[in-house]
From TrEMBL:
<feature type="repeat" description="ANK">
    <location>
        <begin position="153"/>
        <end position="175"/>
    </location>
</feature>
<protein>
    <submittedName>
        <fullName>Uncharacterized protein</fullName>
    </submittedName>
</protein>
<keyword id="KW-0040">ANK repeat</keyword>
<dbReference type="Pfam" id="PF12796">
    <property type="entry name" value="Ank_2"/>
</dbReference>
<feature type="region of interest" description="Disordered">
    <location>
        <begin position="47"/>
        <end position="66"/>
    </location>
</feature>
<dbReference type="InterPro" id="IPR036770">
    <property type="entry name" value="Ankyrin_rpt-contain_sf"/>
</dbReference>
<dbReference type="InterPro" id="IPR002110">
    <property type="entry name" value="Ankyrin_rpt"/>
</dbReference>
């Protein structure tokens, strides 16, 4: 399975595939019925979220012509699944994948997949849902392809969850594909190093459970060096492992 941009570069997005504001807002708020209605061709009522506004792309293309499509994207090539994953809307994630499972491997202009979005935001249940849905695919080893995919910065979903200290999301990712603990990003940094720097004991424990976890950090540093500067809890964890 190949991780590919949702619709080419932003200069190549056909007008009818720019995401309309109604669809964007419904997905952002997790209104599954509203999204399904719009995709089915019903006009639906405009959704006004209390503490959010549509993206510039959604505002620009508010007057969407014709029925909405599940393949519509924002100017950053984010699909409906990216939006749902980033907000942790599990029911909507399942519904979208039921209609088009290829969205699982769609990449934004920065190379983020929906799993990257869920991991960055720390939505552990969304991480689990995406992993399970990928595993249900008929494509062999698709779940590992999704979990191990890297964005433009070379980050896997595990890198993002670890960087932001999302311990539960890290646990979910390690359960599905523990081998990603050995992956380095474009800067040569490991998830373990990022977990230590985030000061998340839960994330560190989950990653260090993998024997092959890399400890690499920037400028010849490693996770143990960082642990010494962080807190005694980390030092105790590394001492027990060693």
């Amino acid at each position: 399975m190949e991780i590919t941009p949702a619709a080419g570069s932003d200069h190549e997005i056909p007008e009818h595939l720019f995401m309309c504001s109604k669809l964007y807002l419904a997905a952002f708020r997790g209104y599954t019925d509203e999204v399904c209605s719009l995709l089915a061709g019903s006009s639906g009522a405009a959704v006004e979220p209390a503490n959010s506004s549509p993206s510039p792309a959604a505002q620009e293309h508010a007057n969407h012509q014709g029925p909405c499509s599940i393949r519509e994207v924002t100017a950053e090539l984010r699909t409906l699944l990216h939006i749902a994953a980033g907000q942790g809307h599990d029911d909507l994630i399942a519904e979208l994948c039921l209609h088009d499972s290829s969205l699982l491997s769609s990449a934004s202009s920065s190379g983020d997949t929906p799993l990257h979005c869920a991991a960055r935001a720390g939505h552990a249940l969304a991480v689990r849902a995406i992993s399970l849905l990928a595993g249900a695919s008929v494509e062999e080893d698709r779940v590992r392809e999704v979990v191990r995919s890297k964005n433009a910065a070379g980050d896997t979903a595990l890198h993002l969850a670890a960087r932001h200290g999302h311990g539960k999301a890290v646990e979910e990712l390690m359960e599905v594909a523990p081998e990603t603990a050995s992956e380095l990003n474009g800067a040569g940094v490991s998830p373990l190093y990022l977990a230590v720097m985030s000061r998340s004991v839960r994330a560190v424990r989950a990653i260090i459970s993998c024997r092959n976890a890399s400890a690499a950090g920037p400028n010849s540093q490693n996770a143990l060096h960082a642990a010494v500067l962080q807190c005694s809890d980390f030092q105790q964890i590394f001492t027990r492992v060693n």
